């Protein structure tokens, strides 16, 4: 009887202790939690052509020694998962949301499929996400706003559909946003203008519609803005002059109308300017000469009229110049001869005429194309002289 009275409290104590340990382990994730999350990912990979996960991700070795896994030295928790270019096929399990110390999640150039599990919203320490060139589908989750530390979000080359969630506008630390080459529709959300640290924005090759929101030009840190090959309409907003750091602008392949705004030429850091394949009209502004750092200018296939401005001769850094497929008239200005860095000139399918002696001072390695396919050229030159200097000239 005495022994029984002694054992009963002891058994109760052991039971309470076990429950405490279980509860503690559940509330305090550790490297074992990370290991289980990664093993779940391994189990969701149906094809591993290089057998990296099959042979290297083993419980007999430390998680921190697995290929593609980096742990922080002080707390030995997984902080980086990099499975780039492994040719993996599979899906993302919800268990991956247990990698609570993860700051970088890079799995580009694989064939991961399906939608993204909501449990990923638990990864509040994430700073970099790269899911490029996979086969993910579904909508871009609105819960991406959980990643308050995020600096780079790259989802291009997938099958995401639906609209761009306005919640992305709350990611105040975001510097890079790449959503191009998906099946996204709808308008560019006004909230994107809240991303005051954004430097690189690429939304092209989608099915976006509507106008370019003027709020976008509040992102004054923007250096690269690519909105090409969508269905954007309306004019190029005058507010574009606010993007004084802009170096690369591509708005080609849209339904943009109106004149090229002179305010655009206040963006003096521009090196690449592509406005081709739109319905822009009016003349090429004389202010284009302000863009002295420009190396690539493409205005082809618009409805531009008037003469080529002589100020184009100020573009001494330009390598490629394409004004083809417009309705430009008059003579090619002699200032074209100042383009000492030029490698390719295309003035085809316009209504240009006159003397083109300006080409004599251009490098003999330059490809010059000025032909009209429907009629003989109207240029008064000694053709053989030009051809001697420029064997790849096309004036037929």
TrEMBL record:
Residues 1-25 form the signal peptide. The keyword Glycoprotein does not apply. GO terms for cellular component: membrane. Its main location: membrane. It comes from the Eukaryota. Keywords: Kinase, Leucine-rich repeat, Membrane, Repeat, Signal, Transferase, Transmembrane, Transmembrane helix. It is a single-pass membrane protein. Residues 33-71 form the Leucine-rich repeat-containing N-terminal plant-type domain. Gene3D superfamilies: Ribonuclease Inhibitor. GO terms for molecular function: kinase activity; peptide receptor activity. SUPFAM superfamilies: L domain-like. InterPro entries: Leu-rich_rpt (IPR001611), Leu-rich_rpt_typical-subtyp (IPR003591), LRR_dom_sf (IPR032675), LRR_N_plant-typ (IPR013210), RLP29 (IPR053213). It is found in: Membrane. Pfam families: LRR_1, LRR_8, LRRNT_2. This is Serine-threonine protein kinase. It comes from Theobroma cacao. The lineage of its organism: Eukaryota, Viridiplantae, Streptophyta, Embryophyta, Tracheophyta.
